[in-house]
Amino acid sequence: MEIPSSLSSGLSGLQKAQSGLTQATVDVAKPAQPQAEANLEADASRPVENVDKTQALVSAVEAQNQGEAAVEVLETSSETIGTIIDLEV
Questions:
Q1: Residue 33 counted as domain residue
Q2: How many CB atoms lie within 10 A of CB 34?
Q3: pLDDT tens digits for range 44-85
Q4: First-to-final CA distance of the chain
Q5: What is the pLDDT of residue 55?
Q6: What's the structural domain count of the chain?
Q7: pLDDT by residue (tens digit) across 8-51?
Q8: How far is CA 43 from the centre of its chain?
Q9: Which stretch of DSSP H or E encloses residue 6?
Q10: φ, ψ dihedrals at 5, nearest 5°
Q11: From CA 83, how far away is CA 89, in angstroms rounded?
Q12: 66-80 burial, b if ≥16 CB within 10 A, otherwise e?
């Protein structure tokens, strides 16, 4: 089993955070359907996706926290590499 470098872990974390934040903002931007319309359309041929705005906002905050943690990983990795080669990166 190969352990990924801290740099690749930090970059991967940033990419996942960006993806999560993008999905959360799309979910928040979707128009809410009134309950009566949702029931009528549920009987129609196409499925209805009713997005919980609160959950979407919680997901956005989670993605923000994940991004901040990934930045900390990248900064620590940069400091460590700078210390190892005796340079400030």
A1: yes
A2: 8
A3: 554 446 678 999 999 999 999 999 999 999 999 888 877 777
A4: 30
A5: 93
A6: 1
A7: 999 999 999 999 999 999 999 988 766 655 555 555 554 446 67
A8: 33
A9: helix 6-29
A10: -70, 160
A11: 9
A12: bbeebeebbeebeee
Give the Cα separation of 13 and 87 in Å (integer).
Answer: 26
DSSP string over 30-71: SPPPPHHHHHHHHTSSS------HHHHHHHHHHHHHHHHHHH
What's the CA gap between 62 and 54, in Å, rounded? 12
Q: In terms of Cα–Cα distance, which of 34, 17, 24, 32 is closest to 70?
A: 17
Cα distance between residue 3 and residue 84, in whole Å: 19
* Residue 53, in any domain of the structure: yes
Domain-embedded: residue 89: no
Domain carrying residue 76: 6-84
* Token pair listed for 77: 């990795």
Integer Cα distance of 60 and 37 in angstroms: 27
Give me the amino acid identity at 11: L
Question: The tokens 């990166």 sit on which residue?
Answer: 89
